[in-house]
Amino acid sequence: MSFQTILDTRKALDSKQTSAVELAQEALAKADRLSYLNAFLHIDPDLTLAQAQAADNKIAKGEQSILTGIPIAHKDVFVTKGWRTTAASKMLANYTSPFDATVVSLLEQAGCVNIGKLNCDEFAMGSGNENSAFGACLNPWDTNAVPGGSSGGSAAAVAADIVLATTGTDTGGSVRQPSALCGVSGIKPTYGTVSRFGMIAFASSLDQAGPIARNARDLVELLDVMSVFDPKDSTSVMQCHGNANQQGRIKASFEKAVAHYQTNGSTPLKGLRIGVPQEYFTKGISAEVKTAIEQAIAQFVSLGAERVDISLPRTALAIPAYYVIAPAEASSNLSRYDGVRYGHRSKAYTGLEQMMSRSRTEGFGAEVQRRIMLGTYVLSQGYYDAYYLQAQRIRRMIANDFQEALQSKCDVIMGPVTPTVAKNIGDNKEDVTADWLADIYTLGVSLAGLPALSIPCGFGGEKGNRPIGLQIIGNYFNEGQLLALGDCYQQQTDWHLRQAEVK
């Protein structure tokens, strides 16, 4: 894009230096030029330019918001009118929704211009965007590397400078992890603060939508619009620590935190306690990631924060607990795709049972089938108590560990997003569960329903061109504080300003 931040773009639009139509045309042209990244699954220029023209009309009347005319794109698990919604699966290869997801509607009402639908792991199941039925998305920093998953297309589109921001979903780390591996910023808000209505379900008690952008200030603008109570979503929360879950909440919290930090002069973070879990720095983490994270935390300390060593003793248990709970919920949610009402239907079958079996076999990819089978097994008679209920007990213990730390020992928790830099595409082909282990630092946050931010903090890899992300975890509904801390760090560093060289 010609402009690197939403604020800069807003000023250019309002001063008539550019128009929403021109920005949309530029984004469409760049998406086409960089189609080799495979970040987009569906683009419709007519639909995009119609939204852009509507945005220009609003600007001409002086009715614009800060997001009016801003080019964005949506992960392909948010249903959209006009654009296809496939969840990157053959099961929904030609599906077009008759309605928009709440998140899509809210951003459209704010004036955002949708450039298209973004690649992801099939039904959001994966950590590298290699499970897409339409091919892997490539990392703009190094096309031999995965962009992370499942929101790989969302992070890649921002990193490649095609759009200013995107939507993603985070079930076990799928906003934070691709943000970290693509050198951009992303936030998973507190579970229930952003509507799941119209978001194709993977694991209902874990799924949460979140934005991805270049920097924390841009995330504020997106999340502030997205975070509202939605009566159409039974898991949507009405109140956030006594404040109504409505537009303006995130921005007010962010501005309050920024104002507080500014009163402290050269040590803006004076009084802030940063918890650093010892379990995040044991075996498994690479030396380059550990060094980058330690340097980032040291930067916060130099700004006045206090480092506090803490323990999250059940960190390792997050992996088995998550991979019981999430597949169990996926097994239930994906049972609706049976070839009867919508989705793929096999052309060769005799009888209803064979039609359903063959439709699901042909429509679902290997990873989705694997998780459905695992989930069905742990929910079956004789195993429900031993696996599913036990996993739910561990989930509560993990949440309690976070609460004990955040209520008595520290204000926020910091650590890595991933144990290593992005792996090469195809590296884990022979070990289908290897990717699961890479989620060790993100799964506990999801199981607890806490908010967490990922911001770029360094590079690694053989060529030094694979990004590293810092994770900042807060207590429930403290998204504004996390974004203010991210902004404070980004005022002092330039990791978020570095751009991938794409042609």
From TrEMBL:
Heterotrimer of A, B and C subunits. It comes from Pelistega ratti. PANTHER family: GLUTAMYL-TRNA(GLN) AMIDOTRANSFERASE SUBUNIT A, TRANSAMIDASE. Gene3D superfamilies: Amidase signature (AS) domain. The active site is at K75, S150, S174. Its EC number is 6.3.5.7. PROSITE patterns: AMIDASES. One of its GO terms (cellular component) is glutamyl-tRNA(Gln) amidotransferase complex. This is Glutamyl-tRNA(Gln) amidotransferase subunit A. It catalyses: L-glutamyl-tRNA(Gln) + L-glutamine + ATP + H2O = L-glutaminyl-tRNA(Gln) + L-glutamate + ADP + phosphate + H(+). It comes from the Bacteria.
